[in-house]
Design goal:
Elements: E1 8-11, H1 21-33, H2 35-38, E2 45-48, H3 59-75, E3 82-85, H4 94-105, E4 112-118, H5 120-123, H6 126-137, E5 142-148, E6 151-152, E7 155-156, H7 159-168, E8 172-173
Helix pairs in contact: 1-3, 3-4
Length: about 190
């Protein structure tokens, strides 16, 4: 990453779509345990504590969980940007508007960004894309599209508009993913070789 001026987003996938706080705390502990490798790499590493952690409409649980996990990283001396995925598979961006301020404020150095995953629920139309990203930008928070594809089980994605809107509004975006998606979502692989 350093040789190519890239920033890596490190994430723990073990807590994907879980909503028990213990799974989030275990994910945070992974980074605490790896702190010797991570400290000093702040310019090249963003820490995404847990991929898509938090259940549907569980905004308070989502907030409380991250308000416990983020201080763990800071107390361990990790000063990296922390990426927090929205709950419900990363797509329930309204949680940022409802609970994001307390998550942001739980970080002693205020270096939190939010990620919205744009599949059919959050990214199925221009209207949805704008609305879901504005939940963060209207509050002054940093946000990125942490995942998106061209299609998904919950509907078609307006991937062209995701990229257009993000470019016009200086919002970063990451397509999911280069290779390795298992059935039934192997269609998300960007590379066939």
């Amino acid at each position: 990453c350093k040789a190519h001026n890239l920033v890596a987003v490190l994430e723990v996938h073990d807590a994907t779509c879980k909503s028990e706080t213990t799974s989030l705390i275990e994910a945070a502990q992974f980074f605490v345990d790896a702190k010797e490798v991570l400290i000093g790499q702040e310019d090249y590493v963003i820490l995404n504590i847990a991929n898509e952690w938090g259940g549907y409409n569980q905004f308070v649980t989502w907030r409380k969980g991250y308000c416990k996990a983020i201080p763990m990283l800071r107390d361990a001396g990790l000063a990296h940007t922390i990426m927090v995925d929205c709950p419900s598979g990363g797509q329930q961006a309204i949680a940022i508007q409802k609970e994001g301020a307390e998550i942001f404020e739980s970080d002693s150095i205020e270096n939190v960004m939010f990620a919205v995953h744009m599949y059919g629920t959050a990214g199925g139309s221009a209207e949805k894309i704008e609305k879901n990203l504005k939940y963060a930008t209207d509050m002054g928070f940093c946000v990125c599209v942490g995942e998106f594809g061209h299609n998904h089980s919950d509907g078609d994605i307006d991937e062209d508009y995701v990229m257009e809107y993000c470019q016009e509004n200086s919002i970063g975006y990451l397509a999911w993913s280069w290779k390795g998606n298992a059935s039934p979502v192997e269609y998300l692989d960007l590379s066939l070789t």
